[in-house]
Amino acid sequence: MEDMTATSRENGALTVGRVAAELGVTVRTLHHYDELGLVAPSGRTAAGYRLYTREDLARLATVVTYRRLGLPLEEVAALLRGDGTPTEHLLRQRDAVRTRLGELTELARAIDRALEASMNDRPATTAELRELFGTGYSEEYRAEAQERWGDTDAWRQSQARTSRYTRADWEEVRAEGERATRALLDAKRAGLPPDSEAAIEAAEAHRMHIHTRFYDCSPQFHESLGRMYVDDPRFTAQYDDGYAEPGLAAYVRDAIAANAGRRHG
Q1: What is the pLDDT of residues 190-213, one digit of tens each?
Q2: How confident is the model at residue 3 (pLDDT cuts 50, 70, 90)?
Q3: Which residue of 14, 116, 137, 212 is most buried, as measured by CB atoms within 10 A?
Q4: 249 and 236 in contact (C-beta within 8 Å)?
Q5: What's the per-residue H, E or C state across 121-179?
Q6: With 90 as the cut, is the pLDDT of residue 181 above it?
Q7: For 40-45, what is the mean pLDDT?
């Protein structure tokens, strides 16, 4: 053991076990490389133990690098049979790394596309709904709504539909609802009365958004919702404060009432 240690210190050579530990490979792997003629330890201790010299270690590091890049041993052997200068090997390693990076980058993109498709096919989570709707969504409101309307057909129909909505579906729902409310807001800011053609059309779009996305919403049921927008301060704040337009909730209520009156009449 003293002879082995002294020789290693003297010429920088290492035993098979030490090399395996430092390069993160097994002794069996090193023996396999030796059998194939890829890298053979060329040094010897005074006691006859085989050692990897500095030159052996440089060649072995090249083999290990190529293998970690996924190159088969036959290709590694072919590369080693080429110009054996360190510069040439480094250039070939760089090219191999760049090729591998390109393959891995494309693989990562493919995984991202598959992941996105997978996420789009599942129902949206509570966290995603909070992210999309902000203060317009809360578990407290949902629990209160269930307590008030949980026994109604409208609630059951809404739950049956929305339970399957993905994040992409909810993004569309949010955009549609925003367009309907914006149309009412534009009509009010233009000075049009709630029973004007533009306001009534916007109110009907608001009703159809609910009717299509959530539950069957008749003009009369829609009218009751319009009254709630004013009677419940939280809904009033969503309209008046959320759009920085005082009186918007009352305007929406009146436009809905005008639309219901026209369709009922």
Answers
A1: 999 999 999 999 999 999 999 999
A2: very low
A3: 14
A4: yes
A5: CCECCHHHHHHHHHHHCCHHHHHHHHHHHCCCHHHHHHHHHHCCCEHHHHHHHHHHHHH
A6: yes
A7: 87
pLDDT of residue 222: 96
Among candidate residues 126, 206, 222, 212, the one with its CA nearest the CA of residue 161: 212
Write the DSSP string, 172-202: HHHHHHHHHHHHHHHHHHTT--TTSHHHHHH
191: which 2 tokens? 């000075």
Q: How many CB atoms lie within 10 A of CB 16?
A: 16
Q: What is the spatial distance between Cα 244 and Cα 236, in angstroms, rounded to a whole number?
A: 11
Distance in angstroms (rounded) separating the CA atoms of residues 139 and 145: 10
Q: How far apart are CA 185 and CA 181, in angstroms?
A: 6
Q: What is the mean pLDDT of residues 169-193?
A: 94
Residue 160: how many CB atoms within 10 A of its CB? 10
- Token output for 20: 């395996």
How many CA atoms, within 13 angstroms, populate the side-chain half-sphere of residue 245? 18
